[in-house]
Amino acid sequence: MRRFFSALFGSAVIAVSGASAVGAQSLQSCDWVASAANLVEPWEETSRTYGDGAVRIALLDTGGEPACCSSHLLILSPDPDYGQACHVLSDQPGTGFRQVFLEESNSRYEAGRGLLVTIPVGRFDPDTGGVDRAGIRPVSIRINQASGQVTLEAASAAPAPAPSSGAQGPKK
User: Fold this and answer.
1) Cβ atoms 92, 62 nearer than 8 A
2) What is the model's pTM?
3) What sign has the CA pseudo-torsion 103, 104, 110, 114?
4) Above 50 in pLDDT, residue 20?
5) Which of its termini does the chain have fewer beta carbons within 10 Å around, N or C?
6) In DSSP terms, which residues pair with 168 in a beta bridge?
7) How far is CA 132 from CA 27, 44, 57, 66, in A?
């Protein structure tokens, strides 16, 4: 039990340090947002695997709550001490993005540093009720399978190209 809480605390420290590096995004150990009930189907379209299936990133939707911002990402990755780590990427703790463009994600592997996955995310535009197209930004997640660290990295300051997909993407 002590090892479990130690791992949980270690993940929280990683999440906080990653969040401060890029601003408002929040990377935290799994909580209620990561419930299986929040997985967006179909799984084949709303998740991606990397590292021969050892890493999975999946779209979560908290049932439209909050109404503006219910899209999050689930990140499952190896943890060398405890088997599997589980993280949730949100705009802020408990508040997601207006839309996550998982289909527009890019990835690359760097020896010694691990996998870097970059995914465009859109925030809520109160004027239209949709995505603020000018505010779509890439979020970069570094996953080091050897160390078990999952962190956020600063992405370029330039906006991501506007995704070509529909207005709200896949829903449950």
Assistant:
1) no
2) 0.77
3) negative
4) no
5) N
6) none
7) 22, 27, 24, 17
- Tokens describing residue 78: 């190896």
Q: Are the C-beta atoms of 97 and 137 separated by less than 8 Å?
A: no
Number of H helices, E strands in the chain: 2, 10
Task: Report the alpha-carbon distance of residue 128 to residue 59 in Å, rounded.
Answer: 23
Q: Name the residue with tokens 């995704």.
A: 163
| Rounded Cα gap, residues 87 and 26, in angstroms | 10
Q: Does 120 sit behind a cis peptide bond, omega within 30 degrees of 0 on the bond before it?
A: no
Q: Is the peptide bond before 66 cis (omega within 30 degrees of 0)?
A: yes
* Alpha helix segments (H runs only) across the chain: 2-22, 43-46
Let me know how long the chain is.
Answer: 172
pLDDT higher than threshold 80 for residue 5? no
User: 72 to each of 4, 41, 62, 116, how far by Cα in Å?
Assistant: 25, 14, 8, 18
